[in-house]
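Most newcomers find our protein records easier to grasp once they have seen one. Sequence and backbone structure share a record, each on its own labelled line. Nothing more is needed to start thinking about how sequence determines fold. As an example, a complete record with its sequence and its structure tokens follows.
=====
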Amino acid sequence: MQSGKKEVLRKFFWFFIGYFFTYGAYYSILLLQSSINIKDGVGVTSASITYGCSVVFSIFLAPILLRVLGERYSAIVAQVTYLIYILANFYPEPYILIPAATLVAVGEATMWPTLLLFTVHYARCYARHGNKDTSAYETMFVGIYFSGYYLSQIFANLLSYGILFGGKNFFGNQNQSTVDFSYCGANDCQDPNATNENIDMYVPTSQITLYLVLGVMAGLLVVSIIVYLTMLKDIDVSLEAVNPETPTSEEAALKDEETKQTSDTTLEGENINTDGVHFKTKNVFTPVLSSIKETFSLLLHPQQLLLAPFALYSGMYLGFIMSDLSRAYGSCLFGVQQIGLNMALHSVAGGIWSMLASSLSSRYGRKVTIMLGFGIDLSCWLFLLFWQPSSQNLGWTYAIYVTTAFASITWITTISDTYIDYFSKKRDIAFVVWNLWVMVGIAVQFGWSTSLCVRTKVYVQIGILCFSILTYGVADYIQKNKAKCG
């Protein structure tokens, strides 16, 4: 039993290393987009295109990649698109950055559901050698996964901060403009005149330091690609603990035979997964049509529609952090080099809370975690709305980055875990649909980043948060009734 656990942990370690470098490198550059490419809004425009296209790709492409290429190569393809996007920032002209942003949309649509599938797989493999319920291990591994995500942000953002801060000191600009705080915080409306007056706060003093940041992050992604090429294996559900809700291999084989008999064309199938994790076939049209049909079917599922506002909100929250918090409450106040330090602090808090939230949810249920998150989140929005930054109270920004981490990780872990619970028989499609709504939320935030004042966005966030709490309550009520009847 102990040797089995060690083997699972060994595989999970290499999986962890790969996504640690991948997420750290890509998102540290993404966080800089609203600042380093602030002129003409090229940075936020490219990010909006990425997440807007990800919505379409989540429906039509991600399920196909998962079922045709398998989980391993789907993850590697996503990593390659991340690398291309980082390299495009060496020459961030619209005709370079926007095509790269469109390409990385494939990676964004694929990477999150793929890696969550791996995480649940390792949890179930570990459960086979443990003495707890499978769901307890799933919650634990999902918590570790998101903690790893936040640790990657700490590592990469501190690297970014160190390079940009060192560059500022080495290539110091003695003529740097005085900051007008009245254009920061909730009053940040992306006024072109204000942006030009404070341009030194948004862009590095020297391009050399920016190129060094891009080069280091590209190197991390190359390492992560090599790790997955050499160490990562496709999911094998035969190694997982038996789940009573999962069909047996005989049932899956019977279902496979019935599917082939009713098909217009008799083709040789290949390895239909017993838990719907992935499906490979020699005829590409079979998984294409099947995946699209299942995705739309789940999108229209009543409980999914009730969970959708929360998934959308969690994406909008992430988009706000990446596009507005990093600029209006970061570079606008301190300079672009401060983004790395602020986001590292944000990630430290998020990593700690990820583990605590998972334990809290396992012990007391998701409702307790959600209500706690709601209280923290609402308080944070109100503070962002009414706080007036000045040179005497800038220390409050650190509290902002800590509390937004608490709220963000609460929604991401809780809602993804809810999708696992509600749609356990179609995990791959459920993760794709969850990821789709997150992408929509991020795309919306980046899309209107230069059009709306931060104050207006905060009011919108508060409204969607309250609505999401109500719809989640209805979904939870339905799920409890189903459990009683089942």
Remarks:
- The beta strands are 269-272, 279-281.
- The domain at 2-234+296-485 is CATH 1.20.1250.20 (Growth Hormone; Chain: A;).
- Confidence is low (pLDDT under 50) at residues 244-282.
